[in-house]
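Problem: given the chain below (291 residues), write out its structure.
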Amino acid sequence: MRNLSRFPLTGPTAIIGFVENDLFAEMLNLARRLAIEAGAIAAEALGRITISRKPDDSVVTEADHAAQRHIVEAVNAAYPDHAIVAEETRTATGPRLDPARTKYTWVVDPLDGTRNYAVGFPCYATAIAVLENAEPVVGVVHEHNTGRTYTAIRGRGAQLDGRTLRLSEPRDARDHLIGISSTKDAFTVRILQTWVPMRGLILRNLGSAAMHLALVAGGGLSAAFGVKSKIWDVAAGALLLAEAGGVLTDPTGKPMTPFDLSADPDRDLPFFAGSPKVHAALLPSLQAQGD
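Solution.
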């Protein structure tokens, strides 16, 4: 494992309010630590970033690969009987267990918002989830510029830096901030054309689906919509939303979990997340444009 002693970590290393010495809490503490360390790896590479393109034309840097190697090696060392699904799969090391046949699967996005990171736009995050039989049971999203860490354990709630998250509907219906997709596919364009004229909707795009979902769970966004997202973009956020009282479905209204771990992990997972009232109010516009 990479020596990170020169990378100072901020904040507590344990998760506030969770029972010690149980598997889920142990996994959450490891995921949180690794997410923060991924940010230290990315910070160390700033100023000498080499950008390359993946087959789908998305951007990747050596920091993505280095952060993923660090996370995967640590998870393999701690839980050799757990499977791992990670975005930059070519950097994966250690045993390749079949997620569809393994009780626990770690889902890792080492650096969500790589385009932002590569050009100096200060919003990028590491997202780590643990699935038990394809259902999220542990979730962490750590944004590296603000240092904020969103965490959740199934059945025990969601937290932002130790503060319990519980969604409430926005008081002012005129100011709903909606996270939108970066893609320009025909479906997304139709949705944007529908939403832009709607009074009360203010559209935002931070370039990170994981952060959009975390912000919905934390109340910073009323809803978020994505089309080209993958399982590593949404797995941690799915649990954050569920535990904070939010709603996550596909654009037709179907639940997104349990995930199909036998399917190609590179397949698109379109999503729509929101507070219950905003989700219910805007879902029909998605359903209509998807016909």
